[in-house]
Structures are given as C-alpha cells and as structure tokens.
Write a structure and sequence with these properties.
3 strands, alpha+beta, three-stranded antiparallel sheet
C-alpha cells in the first residue's frame, strides 16, 4: 500500500489476504523443495536408508524452524531412534507410553513441536 493514502477496510482486508497467500505460497515452495531434496537423496543412494532418513530429519528440522528433529521406528511399546539431526542428545530407544508426548504422533498422526 502507498503511505499517507487513506484506505478502506476492504482494501486493508485484501492487503492482509494477499500477505497471507504470499506466506502460504512461500511455505508450499519450501515443502516442495524439501520433498525434491529427499527424493534426490533416495535416488542417489537407494541402498542406504540411513542416509535418506538422516536427510529427512535435517529437512524436517528446517521446515519446522527447529534446532532438533528425530525419526523413530515403532516396535510394540518401544520407539527406536533411526535418524537424528541437531544438538539435543537422545538415547537409542524410549518407551512408547499411551497418552504421553512420545505417543502423540503415533496415535493421532500429529506433528509434535516443542517450544524451547
């Protein structure tokens, strides 16, 4: 918008909507680039699942603006660490406790993001 020019409520709403759509488009481009990078890694090392999972953890951390990301494999009541990116230390396994924070992504499919 031009400065010092009176605007109507409709124009302000439109400007806000444009900003929202531009932000959403930027996020979509980030997700698309991340997906492309993951597929490139999988394609370049089809026998090394560890490489692909490590890259996925790194990309997930970047998409969430997080310092750390982990990927776990569910085995009955245990979560086995299969990939990690970031400075936070974690053990190779942890219990999967129903209703706990570690259970949320597996029971609901939701992404878990912890504020620090």
């Amino acid at each position: 918008m031009r400065p010092n020019v009176p605007t109507t409520g409709a124009e302000e709403n439109l400007a806000r909507r444009v900003e929202d759509l531009e932000r959403e488009l930027g996020e979509a481009h980030r997700r698309e680039a991340a997906t492309s990078e993951i597929l490139r890694v999988i394609g370049s090392s089809p026998t090394s699942m560890r490489t692909a999972l490590d890259m996925m953890a790194e990309i997930a951390a970047g998409l969430c603006d997080a310092f750390d990301a982990t990927i776990h494999q569910v085995d009955a009541d245990l979560l086995h660490l299969v990939a990690h990116h970031g400075p936070i230390l974690t053990g190779p396994t942890m219990p999967k406790v129903r209703g706990s924070l570690s259970d949320v992504p597996f029971s609901s499919g939701a992404r878990v993001r912890l504020p620090i």
